[in-house]
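Q: Predict the assembly, please.
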Amino acid sequence: AGQLRAMGCELRPLTRCDGSASFNLNTTSALAGVYGPREAKSNVKQSDESVVMVSFNAADGPPSAEEKEVQSMLRQALEAVVVRSQNPMTQIEVAVQCNHDDGGLLAASVNASLAALADAGVALRAQAAAVCVAVGGDGGLLLDPSRGECEGASAVVTFVVRADDGAVISSHCTGACSEDAYFNALQAATAGARSTVSFLRIVFEKRVASERACWSDPQ
Amino acid sequence: MAGVTSLNDKAFVKAAAEEERRVDGRPLLGNRQVRVSLLEGGVGAEVRIGHSRCIAHVQAEIVKPSADKRSEGVLQIELHTSAMGDPAYEPNRIPESIKQGRAAVQKALVKSKAVDLESLCVIPGKAVWSVRVEVRVLDNGGNLTDTALLAAAAALKGFKRNDVTTVGDTVKIHSHFDREPLPLTLYALPLSATFGVLDVSKDSETDRTVMISDPSLLEEQVLSSSITVIACTTDQPVLYGILKSGGCAVETSLIQHACSLAVQRSGEMRGA
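A: Predicted assembly structure:
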């Protein structure tokens, strides 16, 4: 119950984006592409910080209200992590495409976006990761639930947690659960977030090492 | 400023074409590698042709049929570009490449009646399956038409809809666990091959054109015209459509050559 599914992350799968990453939690898969920081349109430009714009597309058809909710939650979470004061008058666009939803889609999208932002070289305030937890009727917790487990739970919470000190950046809860269950879920999520951050760190270190090897090769 | 190609780049591509070469080292009629992967659960497909990447998702639901087509299902295929496909993306602006892609997809899969719509009828006049394919461009590396069409075709081929039983006027849809889902009935799977035409005639000479197959993004900026041929090779080669966007005039022999190449390529892509 307290285990994350197998994680996968691919950096720079897309060629036209400034930065991109795909993040999988077993079969749940999200792809994020980042353009920016680049010139902002005059109607959204802000003189002291950059604007983060997010577009989210689920696998299903026309844009639904749920998608809009995910979009705004994603934007708020990313706005908190990106160092926006570094690039005023610019915009950073994050486009997220969901490929398969087997539970934990919001968490996979946040993680893919954070990895894509790092891949694009956008400065981030902290190492953070998103984790999904399902709370059962009896208060039992399931870390990183599958779709079936989500449907059977009384509440599903996605936390975006800062790995260093366990501070909560963002929390999105569907359903009802007791206060104790919520804080237990948060604890479980913090542990999960730390594992996710270490995993992402390994992925990035590998990439930097391979790029360095590429550049330092005399041929 | 992200979508602008420099004059130097354009001149380079044209100069290479004059010498019958291409910038990425391919032969004039060489194609990039095609990779097709089906998504989990048979709900779609992802296709990569070189750097171009498209993903297609299929959904089916029971709807009431229109009055004039009482015993036919509905097939809708939509092609969208996404914010990640191109730096010059704007929500309400549809680029030329997408318009061409949409025309090709409609011709190849919808108007060609490649999908058997009558088999999608459940209760005539009351309930039919409506199949909707949504193709999204994830990465624009040139030749979106072929990539998008192949993604839509692969998605339709791999798609399985739920089995249904009818009891009088009510329709019972079985889940995947109750009964095996059924594939769609496809008569043919037309695929397209896009060629670019570069006008390399010098001022006083007669028109000289060079045809390249599967143009990349850089080559697309320089093309004088493009020809998309939709073909299928199940029993015998059948052409489903030829789309030639304006631009320079080409000899008929060039178009015939393109058609025969397209037939060959559609056979290759079916295997992929």
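Residues 191-271 of chain B form one domain. Chain B has a mean pLDDT of 86.
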